[in-house]
Structures are given as C-alpha cells and as structure tokens.
Amino acid sequence: MPAARVEYVAPWWAVWLHSAPHLGLRLQRVDSTFRPREESYRESLLFLGLVAAVCLGLNLIFLGVYLVCVCYCRQDETVQTKQRHSCCVTWTAVVAGLVCCAAVGVGFYGNSETNDGVYQLIYSLDNANHTFSGIDALVSRTTQKMEVDLEQHLARLSEIFATRGDYMQTLKFMQQMANSVIAQLSGVPVWRDVTAQLTELADQTGYVEYYRWLSYLLLFVLDLVICLIACLGLAKRSKCLLALMLCCGMLALLLSWTSLAADTAAAVGTSDFCVAPDTFILNITEGQLSTEVTRYYLYCSQSVSSPFQQALTTFQRSLTTMQMQVAGLLQFAVPRFPTAEKDLLRIQLLLNSTESSLHQLTALLDCRGLHKDYLDALAGVCYDGIEGLLYLGLFSFLAALAFSTMICVGPRAWKHFTTRGRDYEDIDDDDPFNPQARRIAAYNPPRGPLHSFCSYSSGLGSQTSLQPPAQTISNAPVSEYMNQAMLFGGNPRYENMPLIGRGSPPPTYSPSMRATYLSVADDHLWPYRNELPA
C-alpha cells in the first residue's frame, strides 16, 4: 500500500499558516513545530490573540475620535448639502447592512465546514476505538481459552491416559503449543490505555464543538437582528432604535474581534499539526507504544513489515499442530479410551474457534483499517476544519468592518433626525402644507362641517341670500384669491378662512413656482372673469 505521505498532503492554506512567524510574548522567535505541552508554543498562539486585541483597541480609538469629531464639530450646511449628506448616510448604512449579511452567509458556511470536519474526526476516533477494543477482546478471549478451558480438558485427559506414556507425551506437547500461543498473544500491544485516551479526546472534542457551533449560531442571529434594528431605525427615523443599534453594534464589534482572535489562534495551531502530524503522534505515543508499531500504522507501506507477522505465524502453526495432535488421538486413542472422546471433541471445537479468532485478529491488526481512519481524521481536521476556521475568520473581520461603519453612521443619522425636526419647527403651524400639520389633522378630526359663504356653482340669487358674518376682510384683489381657489380647490369658492391677504403662497413654494401657478390659473379663469361677483 502507498505510504501515508503520498496519500496525505497538507493543504496549501495549512502550509501558509504554518509559515507565519511565531512570536512569544517577549517578541522572540518560537519554533513553529506543534508542541502544545510547551509553554513557549502556547505563548506564540496567545500572541496572535493579543494582536487581535490590539486591533480592537485601535478600532475603538478610531471610533471614539470619529464620534467626538461628529458630535462636537458643527458645520453650517445648506439645504443641498444636508440632502446630500442624508443620502450618503442612507447608502452607507445600506452597504454596511449588505456587508454584514454577506459576512453572516460566509460564517454559516464556515461554521458548517468546521462542524463537519470535527465530527469526521470524532467518527474516525470512534472507529479506531472500535478496532482497538476488538483487538483487546480477541486477545483476552483467546488467552482465556488457552489458559483455562484447554487446561481443564488436558487435565482430565491426563487422568484418562495415565497408563499410556505416548498419549501423555502428546498431551504435554499440546500444553507446550498452548503456552506458545499465549506467549505470542502477550506480544500484542494492550490498547486499553490508548482507547481510554481516545474516548476522552472524542468526548471533549464533541462537547467543545457543540458549544462552539451553538455560540457562532447565536452570534449570526445577533448580527442579523442588529441589521434589522438599523434598517427599522433609519426607516422610521426612531432615535430609540438607533440608540439600541449603537449599543448592540458595539457589543457585536467586541464579539467579532474576540472570535477573530480565537479563529486565528486555532487555525494556526491546527495548521502546525497538519503540516507534520506523524511527528507529533510519534512523540506522544513514545512511552505507550513501540516506535515500530506506531510507524507501521502511520505509514502502512509495503516497505514496512508488520511487527505482528511473526507472532501471528507462530500462532497459526501452533494451532495447526494442536489440531493434528487432537485428530490423531481421536483416531487412535478413542477406540481404547471411549471416555476421552468428549474432551477431545471439545478441544477440537475450542481450537477451531481459536482459529477463527486468529483470522479476526489478523484482520484487525492489519494497518489498512486504522490507517484509513487516520487519513479520514486528518482530512476532517486539516481540510474541512481549517477551511471552516478561515471562513469564520473572514466573517469576523467583515462583521467588525460592517459594525464599525454602522457605529460611524449612527451619530450622523441622529444629527440628521434632529436637524429635520428643527426645520419642521420653523414652519407655520397654520400652514396647510406643513407635514406636521397634516399629521396632527389626521389625529384630530374636525369638530363640525364648515360652510362656505357662496359658491360659483350656486345661483346668483342664493349667493345674495347668504349673509356672511362680520369679519375683517383684506383689500387684496378678489382675482388673486380666485386664482388660488381655482388652482388648489378645483372651482372658485369663498371659504370661512380665506387666503386673501397672505400676499404669497405657502412658505414651502418658491416665487418662481408661484408665478407659474398664477399664470396657469389666469388661463383657466379667463372665461369667467365677467361672471365673478363685484
């Protein structure tokens, strides 16, 4: 079978992260070999987290300086400048929201990839544990058969064949073969400690992975909720929602930089392992397994012979010899000693089951099964796992950028809301074209119908029959009011509160617009000029 180094090649992103400089807390260079038990190596990973913390500090300083400048630096802006700034604030918030949503999408993919890689590692560890447990069970069961069950049958046969020296020599020879089998089985490593360690590793990995996956899922939901609050705050021009968005955005900014630090340290440490996994495994198993056995399972090549081959061959030969001896006794001793047949048949059945166990043990000790689990674990950690961590790091960076932008946009939107409110306060409350007056009118229904004094559509007699109340009437020309009435009401009519005497249209209209309106109204009223009452 090809060597593991031919089948497994570290991905380029793992090599790239491994080549990154590893510095200690005192800025001294540290070896990048994966050594998690050494303090210097752990400090190099902690240094990466501190770099992210420094970036967070710089980000907060920039935001603080920017907010101070926005809040305390006043500028006199024209109407066009205010509109342009309002449009800039809106589009900046939209782009930041889109970046945040894209970051969440990237984060979902990275979180899923990391989760798949970790659970592939756990699945491979469980398969390896199943193999190791099977080996221990077969060795234990076979040893018990040879030491206890076979010993009992041979003891009874010794009593039966006590008078025959040649049969006694055969029984002693079988006992020697059984001892040889037990000796060969004792050379097989006991995987009990390894199984316990792998089980603990799988349990801890699954526990940590579950809460890691859940934490990122909640962070994604938080980011989306903050984007929704920002959209609602800008759309409804709500200062409460805007303040809530700023507070939650600051929290999300801190969480984004924290997750970026954790992702970077985890990705670099895992890459250091993935570049040379064999070296690390050889080091940690040095006191538990022989180097020959560890290399056999790590490389599993045709050039490396199995360390169990000689023991299994001796085992097989001993079983074959014992089976031949039992067959001879069944053929020659049973006719003279019929009571020995039962024990001989049971010994024969025991040897057959032991041979079956031998074949199973040979298959389990073969390197191909465990080597496949080893490669699957490396693929899950080094390909899916690190790739997912990189995507999660990209998510954290984009989210930090998006929330920094939202925090910068928030004070400008706040000032825009305040300025817009002051502009509304400058408008006359009696102006029917004031948007605030319209909103107030919608909540305050009229107390009663207002009747006009006269209408152009009514007859001339009915016009003279109406007696208007005494009130001060402006000397402004009637045609001006009629022009305005035709323009805004559809037909000329006298109102209870005429606009005569205002001297200009509502303040929201410019003089050029007023001239245009009056010229259009004169054209419409020209046929009725002679019919207007004097």
Provide the fold topology.
Elements lengths: L3 H4 L4 H7 L20 H34 L6 H82 L4 H22 L5 H45 L2 H37 L1 H8 L6 H9 L9 H24 L8 H25 L1 H59 L9 H9 L16 H6 L12 H12 L21 H15 L9
Provide structural commentary.
The chain is mainly alpha-helical. Helix content is 75%, strand content 0%. It is built from 16 helices and no strands. The protein has helices at residues 4-7, 12-18, 39-72, 79-160, 165-186, 192-236, 239-275, 277-284, 291-299, 309-332, 341-365, 367-425, 435-443, 460-465, 478-489, 511-525. Helix 4 (79-160) packs antiparallel against helix 5 (165-186) and helix 9 (291-299) crosses helix 12. It starts with a helix and ends in a 9-residue tail after the last helix.
Mean pLDDT: 79
Radius of gyration: 46 Å
Strand content: under 5%
- Give the SSE order as H and E letters: HHHHHHHHHHHHHHHH
Tally of contiguous helical segments? 16
Largest sheet: none
Which word captures the global form?
Answer: elongated
- Name the structural class: mainly alpha
Share in helix: over 70%
How many strands?
A: 0
Q: Which runs of at least 5 residues are low in confidence (pLDDT < 50)?
A: 1-6, 76-81, 420-428, 446-504
Q: Whole-Å distance between the termini?
A: 115 Å
What is this entry, summarized?
The chain is mostly helical and 534 residues long.
